[in-house]
Design brief:
By secondary structure, the protein is of the alpha/beta class. Helices cover 34% and strands 9% of the residues. Strands 2-1-3-6-7 form a 5-stranded parallel sheet. Strands 4-5 form a two-stranded antiparallel ribbon.
Length: 430
Amino acid sequence: MSVQRLRPLVALFVGVAAMSATPDPSFAQDPFVEFFGGLFEGRPHHGPWGPREPRVRRIMPHRENRGPTYWHADNPRAGKQSESATDHNAPVTQPTFFVATVGDTLGLLLANGLKDGFSDRPDVSIIRKGKESSGLVRDDFYDWPKAAKEIADDAQKINVAVVMLGSNDRQAIQLGGESYEPLSPRWRELYAARVDAVIAAFKEKNIPVIWVGLPVMKNERLSADMAQLNEIYKARSAHAGVPYVDLWDALTDEHGQYSAFGPDINGQIVKLRSADGVHFTEAGARSVAHFVESEIKKYYDAYREQAPVADTPAAPQPETAKGATAPQQPVATAPENGQPIIFRSPVGGPSAAPTLPERPAVGSTQQLTGGGAATELAKRAPASKAPDSATPAQALARHVFIEGGDQSPRENRADDYSWRPSANPTPQPR
């Protein structure tokens, strides 16, 4: 065959071989091929080797200061920013006033509300000393008079003890093989003695006690029993001379009945009680703590007034001989042993400030106390005889501005009325 006939066959063979060969991955993921293929053919051209895998693109941040919205916490830049925003060198205030909250589950919820209430005062620490399902009746389960002594004797000094107990005490008291029904006369005596024992455990260590009463309950019978327990708490608190916080009316409606909803500390109507009608919600615990905070702050303010304040030592003054001039102080002396910096004037000695005259500028010295002092001060000092004026100008000024005399008019001045035309002007000839 001639060369001209072989050329079409060679080109056909090369084309078939190119179509059967696997394309380069970079060519398969070329965005220009995908774009123009979809533009002119209506869809991407996959060829005989099937659809190609989607191209994987890198996601880079679009802003220098923060990552885009689809970035998460694994962003290293965000981690560095959060670390830099936290100042680890900031001074931490250590608590100096400790409040121990003693009680059952309601007392523990009260402690949570007090923690939230005193969160803006880092020097106040709320210590949770409660026990769930405890009370003053079942001393075999948890002996609160004994626990109160241990808390008072603890090495951790307590400034105030807040007690809230009784929600689990509607039970019979077992003593010496005898059982006493709840709220019976003998039961009341034994129960009141246990209340006194808890208060006495703290008073022996000079720790003030605040007793918090029980709230109204959803169950009417349980609520009536809680009201009788509150009478015991209130009477024993008054006998011991400790404040009693009554929560009954604070958690009732306008008719004095149980209400699960009420105003929070911001005045918004929220749910204050849980579904069981006994415990508090988070907002309810904060509202209950609001009534106790006022009593705690009384002891807190008294503690702040009695707390010793570290006196700053005064800067030592150099001893000088009588009549000698004190050496000149530098502009600022370096602090020693925590003393404040002392600023001195660089010139004019220790003090270059002007001083007031010993006597008043006008008049004689008058007393500010005693009879007739105000009258004497109101009197005008007698004017001395004015010296003779040295010049006519001074004499004229004294005559006009001091003596209030008149000044003779001067020609071409405002008080010169000679320029006015006469009432009967002389007719001019025409």
